[in-house]
Amino acid sequence: MRYKVEAVQLKSPSKKESEDAYVLHEEAGVFGVFDGATPLVSFEDEDGHNGAYLAAHHFREQLQGMDANDTLIQTVESANTRLYENMVAYGVDPSKGEERWSTCVAAVKLGSTHFHYAHLGDSMVIAGDKMGAVHVLTTDTVAGISDRAKKKRAEDREEGRAVREESYYDVLLHKLQYNRELANVHGGYTVANGMPEVMTHLDTGSYPMKDLEDIWLVSDGLFHPGLSLEETCRKMKQQGIRSYINDLTAYLENHRHPIDDRTVVHLRFT
Questions:
Q1: Count of domains in the chain?
Q2: Residues sharing a CB contact under 8 Å with residue 26, sequence separation 6 or more, in sequence order
Q3: Are both 166 and 43 inside the same structural domain?
């Protein structure tokens, strides 16, 4: 099938560089969006990049190196292992959730009859068909994590485990540090962070190419608080990606919501 591909990436105004990355590897039919998790520690490498940037761009490079015989599962596993090795080489302690370099993953590889996808976190894979339906193929595992974390702390206290008073977690940094410990555990959220549990929680699947109109790969910076993902994709298709992002940014500014990095890869089949 023939297709056209468009990619748009805009940096958050509050960051010095985008912590998102994307790959357009047309030769292998591989496309992806990677959203690095903003670090809770001050680490930077010799080029001034933090762990979020390094994790997202590491995955981009690994998928960019795929060939026709490589699968997404194999490549994600290899990339995750190498991410762990890179962290250790820089003196990062991977046993501490707040120190790990981590990234969400939304990637596809096109085939003759189906496309295959791999997913972690809240970067999403969405397919549109020629009948006008929009299908969200992945689940945002980050949504609601703070509520689940609070519930887990309450349950742990009831069972006699040592957990600080809830007022301690009213401090945003403390809450985020706790949340990072819930990566790739039951009841937590999924993310590529170098740990072997990533492969247990990797979301994979396939979707038929027949009657496929488009594929959307989006980071969570594209999410509109007042729209579903299905509505978001329809808006981007109707008014154009950059116009939608301009409207979203204005909405977030007017409602004093944070503005994240915004990355989208759109494949439209003809």
A1: 2
A2: 5
A3: no
Task: Assign 3-class secondary structure to the chain.
Answer: CCEEEEEEEECCCCCCCCCEEEEEECCCCEEEEEEECCCCCCCCCCCCCCHHHHHHHHHHHHHHCCCCCCCHHHHHHHHHHHHHHHHHHCCCCCCCCCCCCCEEEEEEEECCCEEEEEEECCCEEEEEECCCCEEECCCCCCCCHHHHHHHHHHHHHHCCCCCCCHHHHHCHHHHHHHHHCCECCCCCECCECCCCHHHHHCEEEEEECCCEEEEEEECHHHCCCCCCHHHHHHHHHHHCHHHHHHHHHHHHHHCCCCCCCEEEEEEEEC
131-168 tens-digit pLDDT: 999 999 999 999 999 999 999 999 999 999 999 999 99
| One domain, residues 12 and 68 | yes
**Same domain for 58 and 166:** no
70 and 154 assigned to the same domain? no
Which residue, 176, 262, 265, is CA-closest to 220?
A: 262
Considering the domain architecture, whether residues 236 and 102 belong to the same structural domain is answered as yes
Q: Which residue has the tokens 């979301």?
A: 203
**Residue-number span of the structural domain to which 151 is assigned:** 143-188
198, 256: one domain: yes
Give me the CATH number covering residue 112.
3.60.40.10
Q: pTM for the complete prediction?
A: 0.96
Q: What is the pLDDT of residues 44-88, one digit of tens each?
A: 999 999 999 999 999 999 999 999 899 999 999 999 999 999 999
One domain for residues 26 and 57? yes
